[in-house]
Write a sequence for this structure.
């Protein structure tokens, strides 16, 4: 079995993948911690032959996690943000300072779709662009839905947005304080993603495929105005592409990769952007 770990500052996700069949056998999530308990926080390591890690947590968390795993597992692979990988050139002035989850998402999206816009809707919403040919432009970071809600300090942080709500409903004025907060932060998030996508495509002269991931991807997806796909395992896809361990991975197949819809024509993106600027 292969254990894939996506360690965030708050939440850590894991999955077990069968080495022979490349099928996902189980998955879960726990709060990020420095001392992991095998068999409780993460699966029983007796069945694991290799581990792949993407971590944006504190270095002490990563160091302790890797130390534990290397004592019990033969091979541990840790992803790093580099100046270049898999045909993609990192757009950061200091490549190592790009969040490795963003780098994994950009690499996975590029392998799947060529030039792309990858959006991670987690604690923060991150938006990264890779042009056809592999030049990573850099990206944008804004507060996620939960962080925006908590910043208002109105006691509504535990009332989540229903991911099955229709976009028209979420974009309408709220009829009570909870609705007003939820609809306001939703409007802010989807408006930012829509505008940033259009602005960058217009400036670069290319309509890019759009891929979303992260815990709030489903709800944010409902407000995105251009064709796109949701890929929950995008970061894992980056780990698979960087450290291919199964026959399917070596053939370039990433687990759970969605069908990528063709983007709208650049002329339509520019027309919509011009119209919004007139309002």
């Amino acid at each position: 079995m292969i254990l894939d770990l996506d360690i965030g500052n708050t939440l850590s996700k894991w999955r077990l993948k069968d080495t022979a069949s490349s099928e996902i056998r189980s998955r879960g999530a726990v709060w990020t911690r420095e001392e992991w308990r095998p068999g409780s926080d993460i699966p029983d390591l007796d069945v694991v032959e290799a581990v792949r890690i993407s971590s944006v947590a504190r270095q002490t968390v990563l160091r302790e996690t890797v130390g534990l795993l290397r004592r019990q597992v033969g091979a541990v692979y840790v992803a790093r943000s580099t100046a270049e990988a898999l045909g993609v050139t990192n757009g950061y002035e200091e490549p190592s300072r790009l969040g490795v989850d963003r780098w994994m998402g950009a690499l996975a999206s590029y392998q799947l779709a060529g030039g792309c816009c990858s959006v991670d809707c987690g604690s923060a919403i991150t938006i990264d662009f890779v042009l056809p040919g592999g030049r990573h432009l850099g990206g944008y970071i804004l507060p996620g839905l939960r962080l925006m809600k908590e910043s208002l300090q109105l006691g509504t942080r535990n009332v989540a947005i229903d991911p099955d709500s229709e976009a028209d409903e979420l974009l309408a004025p709220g009829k009570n304080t909870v609705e007003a907060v939820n609809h306001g932060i939703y409007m802010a998030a989807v408006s930012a993603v829509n505008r940033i996508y259009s602005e960058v495509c217009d400036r670069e002269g290319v309509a890019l495929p759009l891929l979303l991931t992260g815990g709030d991807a489903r709800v944010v997806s409902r407000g995105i105005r251009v064709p796109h796909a949701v890929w929950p395992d995008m970061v894992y896809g980056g780990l698979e592409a960087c450290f291919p361990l199964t026959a399917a991975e070596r053939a370039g197949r990433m687990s759970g990769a969605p069908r990528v819809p063709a983007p709208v024509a650049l002329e339509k993106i520019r027309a919509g952007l011009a119209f919004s600027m007139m309002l």
